[in-house]
Amino acid sequence: MLTHETRCIRWLVCLTAALMFWPAASWGQGTGATRGDRGKLRGGGGPAGGVPMGRGASQQGVGTVLKFTAAERQDTEEGFVGTLRLRMEDGRSVSLEVPAEAVIRLGDREFTSEEMGEILTSGIQLNVGWETEKKKRGEDQVLKSANFHITDVVGEVTKVDAKTEVATVRVVPTGGKLWPDQEARYNKAKSMAQGREVRPPKPQKRSLQIKAVDDASAVLDIDKVATTLLDLEPGTRIEGQIVMGKPFGLVSRLEVRPKKGEEQEAGQQADEGGGEPIRPAGGGGGTRGGGGKPPKLGG
After folding, report:
1. Residue 40 — φ and ψ, nearest 5°?
2. How buried is 204 (Cβ within 10 angstroms: 0-12 exposed, 13-18 middle, 19+ buried)?
3. pLDDT truncated to tens, each residue of the chain (299 aa)?
4. CATH fit for domain 150-178+203-256, picks 2.40.50.320, 3.40.50.150, 3.40.50.720, 2.70.40.10
5. Maximum pairwise Cα distance, the chain
6. Which of 65, 92, 159, 271 is the most buried (most CB within 10 A)?
């Protein structure tokens, strides 16, 4: 028969054993982690005992296309058509899986995922959004949205090469805005300034090579009539929207502007009435703003 002292000793031994094994049994609770997973969680870039940072999170930014690689058979069976590699503004490189349903628009034309290899040449700038998704073979960063990064510019044509169908223009961003690469460096400098004032750089004219895309780029002459990039002559003043790229960018929309002096003359004509014909009731006629014979009607 057990004495009171023996019972107390046994009870203390059982309690001590339970306390020793309780932390190990409860480590993975709340995270669904196994013993092998716990090591991965600690070394995976996230907080100890938590989910790795970035898993399932949406991200977005401006990037420059490095390369588009068509998918292999295994990827196409899983619904992917290729991999898009970009260098983001902050300097990091990302590889995004392009799903079959992805589309990207330039002007009035929509490019499907199967056409992206043709339009997304090296150096083209894009606004992209992506998410990290779990797959059978691990995790993939999947493209969720993409559109061309448009820059509004003004300047003039300096050269047109009919053989390559490329025009060289000398332009500057409108409204005193910076070039995308200038803006990225300026934002980085501000973030590292620790409260010190950082003066923004001045936008400068740059010589760029641009190319029009069939059924997507809009090029309009002085009368707002559709024309082609190859019809523009050196010295033609232009304004519009382009997609930055190397060796050449893409035209989204481009319009011819009046030559210097013609804008002022056109403005004066508008102020004076511009010679618009007036036909008073009962016949006769004249011109507003300074005489002139009325146009002949009929035969």
Report:
1. -65, -40
2. exposed
3. 556 666 666 666 666 655 554 443 332 333 333 333 323 322 333 333 222 333 457 899 999 999 999 887 656 667 888 999 999 988 899 999 999 999 998 988 899 988 888 888 889 999 999 998 876 666 789 999 999 999 999 999 999 999 999 999 999 999 989 898 888 888 888 888 888 888 888 888 999 999 999 989 999 999 999 999 999 999 999 999 999 998 899 999 999 999 876 655 555 554 545 444 434 444 444 433 334 433 333 33
4. 2.40.50.320
5. 137
6. 65
Query: Which CATH number is 58-148 given?
Result: 2.40.50
Alpha helices by DSSP H, the chain: 4-26, 35-43, 73-77, 116-119, 180-192, 262-272
Indicate yes or no: pTM above 0.70.
no
Strand partners, 95: 85
Q: Nearest CA to 240 among 208, 267, 202?
A: 208
